[in-house]
């Protein structure tokens, strides 16, 4: 019998892989995610209306969408086709562009400050006070026609009363904005009148008046001349400018570009035929050149339901009107107040395109139906946007598309990102808590912002606050910063991986996923510090790499993909750093030092050790100085303090104590360096270690030089000063030596005369003495008289001294001859 393999049985799965579930606005529950075609996911996201700077609300929405998209593509590995639109035809764009254009025109036509201009601004101001400011004033305090100027100072006085202002804000949330605009214009008017009276009618004063009253003037100008602005490029260029700004902000926030970007202006013919299709299917009707969607007909039709997302908002007039835009005609011929515009007849001053119903432009909601259909076909897997768009925009989009495609499930998963509040309050210009993306990025990094959103559920309300950023976000950053290649373990890696997947499958639960990663990092660090020291380095590396990869999925990886952890955050400039350019000078120095040491070691000369030391000094004093590296061979520094104070003080909760101690230590070592500003107030061990590196303080373990990075010019200056001091000292020494030599020479010179000759001419005047003994010591004076006893004794003493001097002299002379010969 032939030898057979034993039977094999299909393994039975003990723990099945969790399936991805997504919170779906269409059911308000977490529903299993099933793409229509295999792993291909069709996704449409509502993009911005481009007429102003992007703000924190945009950041919340687009960064969150980006996180979900990255999880779908980079973690679940779906083949996602992400489409986003730019709304570049919109009432807000039209109004803003017209205002800008009319103000610019007035400015360029104005050549001097005239009574006509002053009058024009005054009239604009009066009508602004009546139409805008009055909305926030109590009935009894609204100025009657003609009394606006007289009443104004009193209103300004009232405005200072906080409670009064608060009541105004309750009547009109833009009250403060309107009041401030009117106040600025009023003061500018007073000033302009003064200028005119004193004859200062120059163009600058006229422009100052226009600039200070822009908001007020634009409304009046638009009322009067808005209809004359019909050039498409005026609207288009405003939208193009803000679109470019939007994408600049998005890239700074590390939001990926969409796979396909669509603009309304590029889809107008498709929109016209789409609207025709809806009318043909019986769900649209024409009134005075505008086309409306028939919500009642749609709701009644088999297989269709209107307002699937928010059926309870159906009759909400405020939301409906907002959706229709500020320029839409009164709802005259509408069959139902809930009906909305598919196509709007354009009035003068509004951009228009040809259509079977006359010149007009698309309604707001239709654009997304058309562009999504044009790119993705008659259905999609995911549609996303901010929660504010759910009704009426998304409900209307769905109704239009299902009316056109004759289907009942145009979108399978509708996902809405949650609201954003700032310190507990809705963000709004009138509350003065309006933050642009540019402003927020001056305060926090893109990574910190992203972490702030990651730690909240994507569909929950985020309260953006100082405490969130300095507390939780900072804590997570510190936890993940301790992720280094030399730090990891675990048997819990697989458990963490499973928990991580489960969290993301649970409708992208990023707060939970981040917790899983954070726990794994702490467990790993505990493992590393365990006393037995049997570390499985391979496992630690796997953990490190996996955590890093998962952080990158969230868009948190700033460094190179090979880097462990999330990598170093780099500024835009640093991103292009040329490593070769930076490192080569140091490497060349290191290499040539090595060459020198090798040569000396091989030669084994008798002075080799001395020469190596000299080479080391040259490295310190000559080669490293222009590179800005200071080496200091100091000994006996508090190295123990530096090496163990992170461990000793990191756990001290009082930041003042810790900071104080660190300051002391660091001040002692590097008096010229300041405590780094980016060090958190409650530093961890790692921060402390970092700070030390920031200080360039390398703990001076015995015999190791202290290394500091110092600007080269400082080092060169210090070196020159040292050299000058040494030279001055040497010069002083040389001068002293020379003086000593001269003194000695003078002394020797005195011994040139032999003692026998000392008292004979020419060494004494002729006739000083009469006779001498055999040693040349005088016996009598010039007159032959015997010298006194005391005089003889004195001469004898002198003679003995000279004898000694002369012997020294002869000795020196002999030495000189020997040296020269
Ligand atoms: Zn949309």
TrEMBL record:
It comes from the Eukaryota. It is an enzyme of class 6 (ligase). GO terms for biological process: cysteinyl-tRNA aminoacylation. Residues 499-565 form the Cysteinyl-tRNA synthetase class Ia DALR domain. Its EC number is 6.1.1.16. Its main location: cytoplasm. Residues 747-798 are annotated as: Disordered. GO terms for cellular component: cytoplasm. Keywords: Aminoacyl-tRNA synthetase, ATP-binding, Cytoplasm, Ligase, Metal-binding, Nucleotide-binding, Protein biosynthesis, Zinc. Its cofactor is Zn(2+). GO terms for molecular function: ATP binding; cysteine-tRNA ligase activity; metal ion binding. It is found in: Cytoplasm. Pfam families: DALR_2 (PF09190), tRNA-synt_1e (PF01406). Belongs to the class-I aminoacyl-tRNA synthetase family. This is cysteine--tRNA ligase. It comes from Pycnoporus cinnabarinus.
